[in-house]
Amino acid sequence: MIAEVKEKGLDIRESHIKQGLRSYISRKAYLKVLTLVSNRFDMNEQSNGEVTPNNKL
After folding, report:
1. To 5 degrees, how large is the angle CA 4–CA 9–CA 25?
2. Which of 19, 28, 35, 51 is most buried, judged by most C-beta within 10 A?
3. What is the pTM assigned to this prediction?
4. 2: closest CA among 43, 51, 56?
5. CB neighbours of 17 closer than 8 A, spacing ≥ 6?
């Protein structure tokens, strides 16, 4: 995401992107879904690996 923002020349600070992502992935709903799914998905909704107990959080 950070690379895409830089590539497109958007005026968004890296710290704001990180803060937004940190806020999103800390939500209870997001964490709950992680316990229900077995696949990870990227920003383009493509499968991107498997969720395991070692990489859930």
Report:
1. 40
2. 51
3. 0.58
4. 43
5. 1, 2, 5
